[in-house]
Amino acid sequence: MSYAMRSLVEDDNRYLKSFRLFLECSSEHQCMQDFIHVILPDILASIGEGKANLNVMGVGSGAGEVDLEMFSELRLKHLAVTVDNQVVEPSAQQLHLYKVLVSQKPNLDYIKFTWNKMTATEFEKDWREKNYTKKMDFIHMIQMLYYVKDPCATVSFYQSLLDKKGKLLIILVSDESGWGKHWKTFKTQLCNTESSHSVTTGDIKTYLDSKTVSYQSYELPSQIDITECFTEGDQRGELLLDFLTEVFNFSGTAPAGLKARALELLRHPDCSKEVEGRVIFNNTLGVLVVDPLQ
């Protein structure tokens, strides 16, 4: 029996549980690490113009692991600076984990953390209402533009906050990934909600190009082992399938025909490859480094 489907992001606990499983099954963390420690340092070296204090903002920072990795590289490029760091994150659970992580890490005295428990859209509204004029040297939006109503408008606002040597870092799934093909096929059936959108770096590039905005682009190869999704009743597989479809309890609530078509596409060569009997989904990420408005 199928029931009405609802978005996974409406259940914070289920979402975080499925997200942690996704990270466990994927190489996303490693490809992010490679980018942060190999490519990002030169980008960070270009910001600030010798200022003694840098303004940094993380939009959708989660539990902070990636933020602190980036700060370790920022410190190497700007040894004597202090940092004002605005953390924008709507999940109380994630913010708590971030604060715990900061309390356990040594040598972070040079960073002043300001905690904003709000969505990117709420933060934008608050910023506009208070007429802030502060400019940012570095803003990062990692895997979060799926969860705003208008991703392009959100990019435009946060780009407008950049100082003249600032950078806006955006990481999303690539339009060449399995996600891009999966979303194009099932967009209206799985992702057509107010709280979740099927946006890829290809969509953001199209927008930036239309505005003649300057940016740099990178691809980060990544993959996910989704083999367990094809075993009926497998708890890990069903949890991972929730994350892939962004539907709460997809196996139990999706109509049989939709479920069959979704599973068929997930293992199709357009989305995945088979390696030694395992189904490996293409999770390639795209990175955009956006320059300030001219």
Automatic annotation (TrEMBL):
InterPro entries to which the protein is assigned, alphabetical: HHMT-like (IPR016673), SAM-dependent_MTases_sf (IPR029063)
Xref: SUPFAM superfamilies: S-adenosyl-L-methionine-dependent methyltransferases (SSF53335)
GO molecular function: N-methyltransferase activity
Gene, per the UniProt record: HNMT
PROSITE patterns: SAM_HNMT (PS51597)
Keyword set, alphabetical order: Methyltransferase, S-adenosyl-L-methionine, Transferase
Protein name: Histamine N-methyltransferase
Binding-site positions, substrate: 28, 283
Keyword Phosphoprotein attributed: no
